[in-house]
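Hey forum,

I'm writing up a methods section and want to include a predicted complex as supplementary material. The small molecule is guanosine-5'-diphosphate. I've pasted the protein sequence and the SMILES. Can someone with a working setup run it? I'll credit the forum in the acknowledgements.
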Amino acid sequence: MFESLQSKLSEAFKILRGKGKITEKNIQDAVKQVKMSLLEADVNYKVVKELTDRISQRAIGEKVIQNISPDQQFIKIVNDELLKLFGETASLDLHSRPAVILIVGLQGSGKTTSAAKLALWLKKKNGRNPLLVADDVHRPAAIDQLEALGKSVDIPVFYGDRKDPYKIARESLDFAVKKGCDVVIVDTAGRLQIDEEMMKEAEEIAKVVKPDEVLMVLDSMAGQDVVNAAVEFDKRLSVTGFIITKLDGDARGGIALSTKYVTGKPIKFSSTGEKLDQFDLFYPDRIVSRILGMGDIVSLVEKVQQGLDKKKMEEMEKRLKKAQFTFDDFLDQIHQIKKMGSLSSILEMIPGAQNVKDLKIDDEQVKHVEAIINSMTKKERSNPEIINFSRKERIAKGSGRPLSEVNKLMKNYEDMKKMLKKFNKIDKLGKFPFQMK
Ligand SMILES: Nc1nc2c(ncn2[C@@H]2O[C@H](COP(=O)(O)OP(=O)(O)O)[C@@H](O)[C@H]2O)c(=O)[nH]1
Ligand SMILES: [Mg+2]
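Reply by user p_vandermeer:
Happy to help. Structure tokens for the complex are below, copy them as they are.
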């Protein structure tokens, strides 16, 4: 799957390979190649625009990381942005008893096969007791097809009078209760194209069975108009998610990459073959790693990025031990803490830190603190004790913050320093409390 997209994207990465540094020009070239690759893979143009805008913004804005080459860094960015496009792995909401899943989609997309696969998946992975309902009465073979599939995995199939889709739907619910089935999967008829009659039928069936989930089946090998069909189905039937099929073939990627963005609804399952167990939840990270074929590089960059933060913390630790805590460190520390989450949760782990009041940090505050520190001279930052009243006044003016705020920051700094002195005493007895795990 996605071979052609993968090889085109690797051309984009090559543009940055061997380059000493990332410049705006070579990023633009690489992004342009990414754009072309995606368009050729039949990705919706809106998706392409959004995605490449984000990639180029990040690539231009991001600092070059030591030990990572520009193309590796770029690959990581593309990876992250593709992941964002899919969102989290989504599951099913099957709380009612029996829960009902309506399977809809165009003809040949893989509805009947997917219905059986999903039944097997729910049985095996979730311990559910499914009932399959053959509600495609337009193609006589469709009922037989589902019946055969059900038999092969020992799952009951209901088909009623084989004629009236609404009656079949209604009766299937009673049948499920009688049989002790806790989830009902209804296979419906599809057409080659969107068709009013088909839509009406699906709508009417939905009214009868009141589905918990409406899953539309999408053939990943189909053209882009399938995404438009998805929008239409969603409008009429309130789709809750998609099953993307035939990912074992040479799908171009367009359907997989466009669906979530265009419809706002997640891809929930992927089907990767004709065998009934070739079916699973849709895992965005696996798909992205297939699209990029760069799993190793992505994890390398991740490791280095984590390592960078760790190295910074270790340097900080050394300086703190020597009580060389400056305003530059202060700012750095705030940024690090912000990245890690809430300050209070970190402070809780530090003995004595409960005495430091009012250290809640929000973005606005960080900006103000940053402004104040930036208005200090280099000398002031590394020797805060020289900051007298007139210097404070100058700093307040320069940063556009009130004098009281400058005073408060000085006070916080003093508190933090005092706290560190305490730590250093503790350290003589045991471990330094800022130890990295
Ligand atoms: N290779 C492959 N074939 C599939 C997959 N899903 C369905 N098919 C095949 O696609 C064809 C149409 O499937 P079917 O379930 O009858 O589609 P329906 O018309 O939507 O019900 C059948 O030959 C299936 O075996 C898949 O994930 N991979
Ligand atoms: Mg079918």
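Some notes you might quote in the supplement: Residues 105, 107-113, 190, 217, 245-246, 248-249, 271-274 surround guanosine-5'-diphosphate (ligand 1) (CB under 6 Å). The first helix runs from residue 3 to 16.
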